[in-house]
Known about the structure:
The chain has a four-stranded antiparallel β-sheet with strand order 3-4-5-6, with no helix packed on it. Strands 8-9-11-12 form a four-stranded antiparallel β-sheet, with no helix packed on it. Strands 1-2 form a two-stranded antiparallel ribbon.
Amino acid sequence: xxxxxxxxxxxxxxxxxxxxxxxxxxxxxxxxxxxxxxxxxxxxxxxxxxxxxxxxxxxxxxxxxxxxxxxxxxxxxxxxxxxxxxxxxxxxxxxxxxxxxxxxxxxxxxxxxxxxxxxxxxxxxxxxxxxxxxxxxxxxxxxxxxxxxxxxxxxxxxxxxxxxxxxxxxxxxxxxxxxxxxxxxxxxxxxxxxxxxx
Length: 198
């Protein structure tokens, strides 16, 4: 699949710009892009493969100051175990102030990366925070995994949020449904209640 975001004139229907393909990327479904503006800085953010891109809304040019030459890795907050694993985002991120909060899609097999929820600074592309969907020993929910090494992402991963989020702006709360820790249909390797997986 190819990711080729484009802009058209809403009155005439004429194309204004079109990004060169960032693909091909296997399973690169794209359900939309995200728009952010602050003064004259107007950005479109989209994903292709394991990357989050930022381009100028008016021209489609990469914003070089964002991440590394206009893109930042969706694997940034997932740990070293995820570096060679399948990680994409098929749904647009959610904007809150100067953050873009990203959903992830990972494998549904035993080789799955962890599907933590990550927030990136929308101006710099730097990782701002991570919500561990498979908690570490210091976090709430860790005790719900009988396999105490689950958070290390050796034989257990997943628990991603891949769909759209709901944002409550007044209190700054984001609501995100979480999927399964693989295998989806057999939990023999992940006994316990498995917070925060479904």
